[in-house]
Amino acid sequence: MSIRSTVASQFERVAVEQHRKLARLSDDLKLLESGLDSLSFALIVAHLEEALGFDPFDVAGDLKFPVTFGDFVKLYENHSKSV
Hints:
The chain is mainly α. It has helices at residues 3-17, 38-52, 69-82. Helices cover 53% and strands 0% of the residues. The longest helix is centred in the N-terminal third of the chain and has 15 residues, at 3-17. It is globular and about 35 Å long.
C-alpha cells in the first residue's frame, strides 16, 4: 500500500471512529475544512506511526506544518525518503 493510500485510509478510519463527517479527500483540501478536529489528527498521527514506523512531526529543527491534505501526504512521503 502506498503512503498516500495509507494516509487516506487512516483519515477515513478516524473519521468513522470519531463520528465525524469527512470531506472528500483531495490534495487541495484544507485540513481545517476536512471535518476532523485536533483529537482526530492526533489519532491519525499515532495510527500512521504504528503503520509506517515513523512520526515526521518528531524531528528536530524547523518543520513546516501541513495546511492541506496534499501537504500532509507529502510530509509523510518526504520523511520516508529521508529515513
